[in-house]
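User: These chains co-purify. Model them together.
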Amino acid sequence: MFSFLNRYREPLLVGALIIVPLISFLSRGGRGREPNFIDRAVLALSAPLQSALTFAFTGVSSIVDGYVALRGAHEDATQCHGRLAEAQAELNSLTEAKAENQRLKEALNFVERASGPSITARVIGLNATPQFQSFRINRGEDDGVRVGMPVVTPKGVVGQVVRAVGSSADVMVMLDPQSRIGALVQRSRVRGTVVGAGDGQKMLLDFVRREDDITDGDVVVTAGTDGIFPRGLVVGSVKGVSRPTVGLFLIGQIEPAVDLARVEEVLILPVTELSAMRAVEGAR
Amino acid sequence: MKGALMVALALVLLSIEAVLVRTFGFEVTRIDVTVVIIVFMAVRSTTIEGAITAFTVDYLLDVFTGRPSGLFPALGVLVFLLARAAAQLLDGKSRLGFALFSAGATVGHSLAAFLLTWLTSKNADGRVLSLTAVPVQALLTGVTAALLYPLLAKIEPGERVEGGRFV
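Assistant: Joint model of the two components:
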């Protein structure tokens, strides 16, 4: 036995290096595993390096951008003042609507509440393979980030946390083909599911009936039905709708509201009581 | 020791790539930096040392994807073996040969990754879309291989004959 192992140690070792991870991959159906201590060590080593590199790249680009921004700054400032006035007016009306919304929720004894404060994080790198659309942020388990938490910016939805370790976490953006978000069209209240197209640029609106009212430019928001994202966050806008001659559903393309490739800072929302409840139910 | 240096180099290169891709966006194609190292080990190292290094550098890649599944370590060793077999027939030790080898290995690595992901994922249609990026990915990886060649050759010089060429 020993002489057999000794004689064939090379092919046995190389074979094991292929077969063991391949079986692991196939048995999980391509899904990621929980981070083990080696993964955590690799991430602990690479996260500070990525942070330092990001800081260096951002420094150089901000110097260049700063110079470019000086040109035409006066016109920009004038425009900004105008927009600020418009935004202030809109804010006033929204404040009124929020107060009304709050009263109605209290009247209905609405139970969806945030279970903690939101967390701000900086993007320190995009993943190195085109098969998975995800990026890394500089906040992790130590900061209260947990798997499944929704990630947003003030402009709209970004994605959700798929792995969290000590001081960093990975966020699957909604462009990834595995991403699913319950959504509705703001104008017509038509419901559907937003799915990543996988090309790094757009999403698809799935499970919407052919006869439903959707047109180019319609704003798509989260429906709050997936148990992850709170209701009403902007996902993107419809850019192209086709109704095939056969089949039940139309094909809608959605342009994300957030420039996901160039997002620098994100907000990680706490898990709502509703989503926590669904997570517990899902684990059972 | 050389294997450990290669793994450390892979970690640094993957970190740099992650930051560069962040600067240019998701639509930018990636460079298979780990394939460059795997091919280099295939043409310069022993089978066991090379296979372990190939496994380890693609393990890093697996961790960097955000959802490590075991796919890339297996592919790394497979590409290593194929590159090693091809190196018996073709010259992969010159700078140009190494760049071409790396470009070819990138195509194999990417196609195998897409195929296995497609076979195991019920929502893999989207991933097939990014297959169109493979030729550019192979080209960029080939160029990167040519640029990294002097650094890699310093870590693993191989045996030299009088003319100074690697054997």
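Chain B has seven helices and no strands.
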